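Question:
When you can, review this sequence-structure pair and walk me through the tokens.
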Amino acid sequence: MAEYRCKVRQLMAKDPTDEKAKKELEDLQKEMETYGDKMAKKYESKKDDKEMEAKAEAIMKEVMEKCK
């Protein structure tokens, strides 16, 4: 999910009138939604697992810090 968020950040940084970037952003957001639903189902039993949440947050932070 962190990689998707990085791509969103990069696309949003482009010129707001760039139609290609807008289309890419729309497609990416659809992919993110599908992926998010898939992961929610896959890890439903670990929903309140604090250790897993901490690992996920650490990964998100690491990827977003490198996102340029």
Q: What stands out?
A: The mean pLDDT is 91. The chain is about 75% helix and 0% strand. The longest helix spans residues 19-42. The two ends are 16 Å apart (CA to CA).
